[in-house]
Amino acid sequence: MIKRHKMKSPKSKQDLIETVLEQIKVDIDCHEYEAIEELIRFIPIENLIAYLPAEDWKKFKHLRDA
Predict the structure, then answer these.
(1) How many angstroms separate the CA atoms of 5 and 25, rounded?
(2) Number of Cβ within a 10 Å radius of residue 27
(3) Positive or negative torsion for Cα 37, 5, 52, 33
(4) Which residues of 30-57 are buried (b: 16+ CB within 10 A; e: fewer)?
């Protein structure tokens, strides 16, 4: 059975973000990564690279320059 985060009544974008983060935590705890991977695919490459520690940026520079 897949666990789902009990959603409160979202009133703002921040509430939505917090609810999504809580669901991501539940999914990780359950080793369910597919939905997270699909969501991450929509994030621009520059943002993905910037999320990593600075020492890893050079490893992915070729993707940013493509």
Answers:
(1) 9
(2) 19
(3) negative
(4) eeeeeeeeeeeeeeeeeeebeeeeeeee
Q: Write the pLDDT tens digit of every residue in 4-40.
A: 666 667 689 999 999 999 999 999 999 999 999 999 9
Tell the residue number behind the tokens 């009133």, with chain if given: 11
Separation CA 28–CA 2 (nearest Å): 11
pTM > 0.90: no
User: Which tokens go with 57?
Assistant: 């940026």
53 DSSP assignment: -
